[in-house]
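Take a look at the protein record below and tell me what you see:
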Amino acid sequence: MSPAFTIGLGCDRGVLLETVRDAVQAALAAAGAQPQQVVAAASITLKKDEVALLALAEENGWPLHFYDAEQLAAVDVPHPSETVRKYTGTPSVSEAAALLAAGPNTPMTALVVEKHKHKGTDGRNATVSIARKTP
């Protein structure tokens, strides 16, 4: 059986679907993973109305989970960011969301792509992290 992965997503408000799609494709390629191996995507509740994230999950048939800042902040991650904390209330969105979606107590060593940043042609940023799902 092939490994299963979860994707954590962070992005600028109003990001284009193309930017998020390109970021995810690059992160999957870095992980040597295929979209069909992804069992869930996740982000912060602040993004539950972000059109590009909703569209990407629908396009791929991925369930999309949202976690609040407090849940995300409780997760140990390799690349916490004070800038992210300033805007969201948590030092990590994509890494923490990928780990939470992978299962309870998933260690940061499960991250196969830590914090892939991508700036799209729209000038907006998307950040993608990928974790190996706990069986």
Remarks:
- The domain at 4-133 is CATH 3.30.420.180 (Nucleotidyltransferase; domain 5).
- The two ends are 11 Å apart (CA to CA).
